[in-house]
């Protein structure tokens, strides 16, 4: 049994469990940070191992595949694990100054670690039912984090979030039941082989479409994203940032996995549908953002819009498209989380998230302005930042397949994103403040450092785009041929 | 009518009733709808695998595998797990809706729109 494959689940679990026992805020905080750092270290080590030695898999409980519980880390899972645990640590640091004592006393930190455990478990699961269980772990932690504090807006947002996510979970469960009835297995490697030889591939459309619906809701794709905008701006900003970085991307990860490994029998239909969903998700998200004058709500609509680009890469189903999609996921997790962090700092300085009431931040806070510009330009796709290369890869892959409408939409939406970011810049940073600027203290380091770290990584991802693209292409080729994945899982020693 | 057909009809009715209840405006009906949908999904997993009557998946003495044609125990294990999960989530939902009802002062879902404009 490979310890590194189990660590991303055990470390957050142990941290959360200890967090319920340890008394005293300082010890609590220390434990939480150590847990977050250990998680990051373990996932980075796992990523290094997978980069060198290829897909790793292990069987829990000494049952051989496909009967046992399989944990498997291919390059996609390893990359997602590393980025997610980085975001986890960043948010833990950011929470030090932004989460009030009452929320901390009610188990904020343990819940955050449970959420990270759910996310890591979902990336590592090698079995559809386990994936379902990890989704539920992640969901219940996110439900409580979202409603923790019990403010009216939070509760109203949570009602929508909880209802639609439960509906998605039930669709997922129905699909799992149908697939097990059809194929007699739920191990994804085993399914990958059996579904490719299925005698009646038409029947597979039913569970396939149910999974598309379930993961589509979780990823906030068109037309089922309506739970996201009313919910994501209601909790404390650290929670919003964490959700924006991780939760929808787990949905995207599940889509990437399901529609490269399992459902490739009728690519013309499934991936054609995905292309429509991708284009409309981009467009509706960015148009929704254009109408917003609240910093966090505007960013929430951009989450939706960006999901479209990731789905576009999946819809193309080529090495270039998938590489672009994965680059995009990584870039977006970094940039989008950072934008939420910056909006939190702007609100801390000025006391509001309303873009109309904000102003003059460029003069009073030049450093904060730079911290905003980096992820904002990355999101819009300006060279030499990370977003540019991710978009370039996607557009090239689209042009290769002569999908001009989809590529045209992607480029247009990119321009509209730039417009939207310019709006934020001119409202919050450039224009004169509407009234006397509110007295404001210094921004604590625990707010600046996480944001600066993410900004630095966004720049580095742009500067080392060649290396990133090489890893992305290797990852995409792994996704396109299922043999390596199947061999790693079936050959894994218990 | 075979048991499969009957159960298929029951599951379909449960899905329809659950979705209908979720579309109503009252928070209580929302919970009932979610509960019905959870039952429908659990029954679907159970039925989708195929129903086998009267043959328990027991391994006879001095054998290592059960005789062919027995019921598949895995589906029942899946359903059991799913029941536990959906029950836990449902309890959370009930508490959440109760608190939302308290905060908003109305059981009408249409009154909970202040975060949307």
Offer a quick outline of the entry.
Chain A is mainly alpha-helical and 494 residues long.
What keywords describe this structure?
heterodimer; A: 494 residues; mainly alpha; two-stranded antiparallel ribbon; 78% helix; 2% strand; globular; B: 117 residues; Helix Hairpins; 3 helices; 64% helix; 0% strand
Explain what this protein looks like in three dimensions.
Chain A starts with a helix and ends with a helix. Chain A has a two-stranded antiparallel sheet. The model of chain A has no long low-confidence stretch (mean pLDDT 91). Chain A has 494 residues and is mostly helical. Chain A has a domain of 198 residues. In chain A, 78% of the residues lie in helices and 2% in strands. Chain B is mainly α. Chain B has one domain: Helix Hairpins (Orthogonal Bundle), CATH 1.10.287.3510. Helix content of chain B is 64%, strand content 0%. In chain B, helix 2 runs antiparallel to helix 3. Chain B starts with a helix and ends in a 13-residue tail after the last helix. Chains A and B meet through helix 6, helix 7 and helix 10 of A and helix 2 and helix 3 of B.
């Amino acid at each position: 049994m490979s310890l590194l494959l189990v660590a991303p689940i055990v470390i957050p679990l142990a941290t959360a469990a200890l967090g319920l026992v340890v008394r005293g805020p300082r010890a609590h905080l220390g434990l939480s940070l150590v847990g977050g750092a250990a998680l990051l270290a373990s996932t980075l080590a796992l990523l290094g191992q997978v980069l060198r030695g290829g897909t790793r898999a292990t069987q829990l409980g000494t049952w051989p595949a496909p009967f046992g519980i399989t944990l498997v880390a291919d390059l996609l899972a390893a990359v997602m694990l590393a980025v997610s645990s980085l975001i986890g640590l960043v948010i833990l640091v950011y929470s030090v100054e932004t989460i009030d004592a009452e929320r901390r006393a009610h188990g904020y930190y343990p819940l955050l670690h449970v959420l990270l455990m759910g996310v890591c478990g979902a990336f590592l699961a090698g079995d559809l039912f386990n994936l379902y269980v990890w989704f539920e772990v992640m969901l219940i932690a996110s439900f409580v984090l979202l409603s923790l504090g019990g403010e009216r807006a939070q509760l109203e947002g949570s009602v929508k979030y909880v209802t639609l996510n439960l509906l998605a979970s039930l669709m997922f469960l129905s699909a799992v039941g149908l697939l097990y009835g059809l194929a007699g297995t739920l191990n994804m490697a085993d399914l990958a082989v059996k579904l490719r030889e299925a005698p009646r591939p038409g029947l597979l459309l039913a569970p396939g479409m149910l999974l598309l619906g379930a993961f589509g809701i979780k990823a906030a794709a068109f037309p089922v994203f309506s739970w996201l905008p009313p919910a994501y701006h209601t909790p404390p900003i650290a929670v919003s940032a964490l959700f924006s970085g991780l939760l929808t991307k787990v949905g995207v990860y599940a889509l990437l996995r399901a529609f490269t490994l399992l459902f490739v029998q009728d690519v013309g239909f499934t991936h054609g549908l995905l292309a429509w969903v991708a284009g409309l998700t981009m467009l509706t998200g960015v148009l929704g953002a254009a109408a917003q004058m609240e910093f966090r709500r505007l960013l929430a609509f951009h989450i939706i819009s960006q999901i479209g680009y990731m789905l576009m890469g999946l819809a193309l189903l080529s090495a270039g498209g998938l590489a672009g999609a994965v680059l995009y996921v990584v870039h977006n997790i970094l940039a989008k989380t950072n934008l939420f962090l910056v909006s939190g700092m702007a609100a801390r300085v000025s006391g509001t998230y309303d873009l109309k009431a904000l102003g003059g931040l460029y003069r009073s806070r030049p450093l904060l302005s730079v911290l905003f510009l980096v992820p904002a330009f990355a999101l819009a796709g300006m060279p030499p930042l990370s977003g540019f290369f991710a978009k370039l890869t996607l557009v090239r892959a689209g042009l290769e397949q002569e999908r001009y409408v989809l590529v045209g939409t992607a480029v247009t939406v990119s321009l509209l994103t730039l417009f939207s970011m310019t709006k934020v810049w001119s409202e919050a940073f450039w224009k004169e403040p509407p009234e006397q600027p509110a007295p404001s203290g210094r921004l604590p380091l625990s707010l600046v450092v996480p944001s600066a770290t993410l900004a630095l990584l966004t720049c580095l991802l742009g500067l080392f785009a060649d290396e990133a693209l090489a890893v992305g292409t290797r990852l995409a080729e792994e996704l396109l041929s299922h043999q390596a994945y199947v061999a790693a899982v079936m050959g894994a020693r218990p | 009518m075979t048991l499969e057909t009957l159960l298929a009809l029951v599951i379909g009715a449960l899905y329809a009733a659950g979705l209908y209840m979720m579309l109503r405006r009252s928070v209580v009906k929302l919970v009932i709808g979610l509960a019905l949908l959870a039952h429908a999904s659990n029954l679907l997993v159970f039925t989708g695998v195929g129903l086998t009557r009267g043959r328990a998946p027991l391994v006879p003495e001095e054998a290592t595998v059960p005789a062919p044609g027995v019921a598949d125990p895995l589906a029942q294990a899946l359903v059991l797990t799913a029941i536990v999960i959906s029950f836990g989530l449902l309890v959370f939902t009930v508490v959440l809706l109760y608190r939302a009802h308290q905060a908003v002062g109305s059981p009408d879902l249409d009154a909970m729109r202040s975060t949307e404009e």
